[in-house]
Amino acid sequence: MDFNLLGKQVHIPSTDPKEAKLDVFPNQFTERDYLIQFECADFTSLCPVTGQPDFANIIIKYTPDKLCVETKSLKYYLHAYRNFQGFNEKIVNTILLDLVEICQPKWMQVEGQFAARGGIKLTTIAEYPNLNLNNHK
Known about the structure:
Elements (H helix, E strand, L loop, with lengths): L23 E3 L9 E11 L6 E11 L3 E3 L1 H9 L8 H16 L3 E11 L2 E9 L9
Antiparallel strand pairs: 1-4, 2-3, 3-5, 5-6
């Protein structure tokens, strides 16, 4: 397989996650549904109004179809948000859209648990193909 990042030196995009390269590889177990989960506990981005950092735990869960997301490329993609200015809701939905575009999963959920600011903790959950609130914990 030829990966863009795995096994190579990497340049991290400074302000635009769209510059990051997400890699995929073939799902070797297409005969069954299974869950893949990633957790990034040190995610940061910037508030678009104040420029102050927002800290979050990003949890990505998906059931792959034909392709799986390669972990190192995901790590650098998420790191590219460090200097990106966006509201929490935009960030979570953009991550979902970018990942769905690259791997076309059967199902995917991105959850952003953002640290409290002004005494309010915000969690945003976006799901593909849709959000089933009955399954939400």
